[in-house]
Design brief:
Structural class: alpha+beta
Helix content: 25-40%
Number of domains: 2
CATH architecture of the largest domain: 2-Layer Sandwich
CATH superfamily of the largest domain: Bira Bifunctional Protein, Domain 2
Distance between the termini: 52 Å
Largest sheet: 8 strands, mixed
Bound molecules: adenosine-5'-triphosphate, magnesium ion
Strand content: 15-25%
Shape: elongated
Radius of gyration: 28 Å
């Protein structure tokens, strides 16, 4: 027998009934984004590699080791999208979407990162996120955070924590860099290999390290608040006030620095204790320098990315399940003649109604058909056997209340109307 082919390592097939949970989460995310006035944007699944090198930053984990990069047949270096922000900015610039001022976008779809697969960490993952362009005002930061928080709260997740920090701007961050260099340099030999490499290139990245070797030195590292400039201080205060006025609870956490180079000022993460080691479900912040660094006009921006796999893991762990409500009709034919007649009726019904109409074509006993109806979570069954066919009738059974009645075997429209009366 030929050997079977498996899904690539770090990827997941999303199968029924799980796929319904995915659709429901995606629908909720779209709905929340819509309520906040964000419009959907979709970009290609792959881009020129250069976009991510410039837009995400050469010293980030993503660009250093996680990109799926390949050379296409035209000898161009291409990379599967590892994150959405750089592509969204690229598309907005390419189509001059900033010409009319502020814009708000949301996205939903896969990202690809060559990571070591483990719980909550995959090579193809899915993100929902938003980007708000054109406002330096702290209300934009608070709005973006509120949107993420709304999605979390609307699912009844009660253990989520919002961590908030500021990482300064072009005026004060260089001072912080110097302070970190002075702190870590004497301990260089004891730091993890990654951190040693990061020290001269981007010492703030060390704070992001999860390596045990670095923990003690990170704990005693100077904090940015000691060097934060006054405009950054004021902005951060105003973000906190706006969050308080929107009733969003947060904790200040100076350890949140985010992995990507383009962040300025506000950074935030939403964590859940039930996730274990990969505890961050949502990360984001302000990135006022990115648009100009990709060749666009100076455009302040703030956004977040939220991992859908991790979000669903939280719902699982907390036992939050959306009720499966029975809906639609299972058409059940007993015998070939009945099947032929019923198929015509089903075709007509599907033109008439938006509720699901299921039909199994197999030769089975009624009990087997009713099992299939249960698996489809159908609310009603329409049963046509040879006896009914002879009398030009059909049985309509309510699978929830168990009551049933006989109808004339009429048109799809008439039968749908009869089902509608029961609804
Ligand atoms: P981590 O520190 O866990 O590696 P990150 O900082 O790389 O996260 P971001 O780039 O900010 O993550 O992406 C935002 C969110 O997307 C994360 O909080 C997480 O929920 C999700 N995410 C990122 N990478 C993966 C992955 N490989 N597998 C599953 N989810 C992911
Ligand atoms: Mg990562």
């Amino acid at each position: 027998m030929a050997s079977t082919v498996h899904a690539p390592r770090g990827t997941q097939d999303i199968l029924p009934p799980d796929s319904a949970r995915w659709s429901a989460l995606e629908a909720r995310a779209r709905e929340v984004a819509g309520r906040f006035g964000y419009e959907e944007i979709r970009t290609p699944m792959f881009e020129a590699t250069e976009l991510f090198v410039r837009g995400v930053g050469e010293t980030t984990d993503i660009v250093e080791k996680e990109m799926y990069t390949f050379t296409d047949k035209g000898d161009r270096s291409m990379t599967l999208r590892p994150e959405w922000t750089a592509p969204v900015v690229r598309a907005a610039l390419e189509h001059k979407l900033f010409a009319q001022g502020a814009r708000r976008f949301f996205y939903i779809g896969p990202i690809f990162r060559y990571e070591r697969p483990q719980k909550g960490r995959y090579r193809q993952a899915h993100q929902f996120g938003v980007e708000c362009f054109g406002y330096e005002q702290p209300q934009a930061d608070a709005e973006v955070i509120s949107l993420a928080w709304d999605l979390v709260r609307s699912h009844g997740i009660t253990d989520a924590v919002l961590h908030l920090n500021t990482i300064g701007d072009a005026a004060c961050r260089p001072l912080y860099r110097d302070a970190l260099l002075a702190h870590f340099r004497p301990h260089l030999a004891s730091l993890s290999e990654d951190s040693q490499r990061r020290l001269e290139r981007n010492p703030m990245r060390i704070l992001d390290s999860k390596d045990a070797a670095d923990a003690a030195y990170i704990a005693t590292a100077p904090t940015l608040s000691s060097v934060l400039c006054q405009p950054c201080r004021d902005h951060f205060e105003a973000v906190q006030n706006a969050l308080r006025s929107a009733n969003i609870p947060f904790v200040l956490n100076e350890k949140v620095v985010r992995g990507l180079d383009y962040y300025t000022r506000t950074v935030f993460e939403i964590t859940s204790s039930v996730l274990g080691a990969q505890s961050t479900v949502c990360g984001g912040g302000r990135y006022d320098e990115l648009v100009s660094s990709l060749g666009g006009p100076a455009t302040p921006a703030v956004g977040f990315g939220l991992g859908l796999e991790r979000f669903l893991m939280i719902l699982d762990a907390l036992g939050i399940h959306s009720e499966t409500t029975r809906s639609g009709v299972q058409a059940i034919a007993l015998g070939a003649d009945a099947r032929e007649r019923l198929f015509t009726l089903v075709a007509q019904m599907r033109q008439e109604t938006s509720m699901p109409v299921f039909m199994d074509f197999g030769d089975r006993k009624i009990l087997a058909h009713l099992k299939i109806a249960d698996r489809n979570a159908a609310r009603y069954a329409l049963i046509l056997g040879s006896e009914e066919l002879a009398k030009n009738e059909i049985v309509l059974r309510d699978l929830q209340t168990r009551s049933e009645r006989r109808l004339p075997l009429g048109s799809g429209k008439e039968v749908c109307a009869a089902v509608g009366e029961l609804e």
